[in-house]
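Example pasted here:
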Amino acid sequence: GDQLPLILVGHSRAGASVLGAAARSVRGEWSKPVEGVITLASIGQYARTSPDLLRQVEEHGYLERPAARAEGGTVRIGRSWYEHELDSGSGDPFRSDLAELRDLPVAVIHGEADTSVPPTESERIVEILREAGNERVRMHKVAGADHNFSAKGVLGDDLRWDRTIAEELKEAVGDGLDLILNH
């Protein structure tokens, strides 16, 4: 509803994407302002795509890629996913987008045992935000958690969690919500 705050949450590559979306909100490109962001196991930059794949996105409006965690499955990724590359040219649009978030609360959560996206990626996000003057950025590392925060069966019907990691993740997300809602 219109009375609820808009909080963006993203995992992995989507963690970087919600930071970019928040920057568009700060620039006034959205009708409703973003109140804060929570990233989980985020990459520390916008992903770079080969020129050939970008041409395919321009031509078809999407790419179909194999799903990394679902054998035989595919994921259709639309143009908006690649917008930062299609529209920005050269340079580091991620760093300049994060610089615009100097007044926005951002919770950065990452598993210490993540081998898919190392925790240094989230540390880079925190560093860029702090360099931009953001005093409302909070980093939380979850001990023993991998890229999916040790959830098993993520794409199936049998979702299971390591209870200790799930509790720490719940606490980290709660702290992030507190940071955003009580600023």
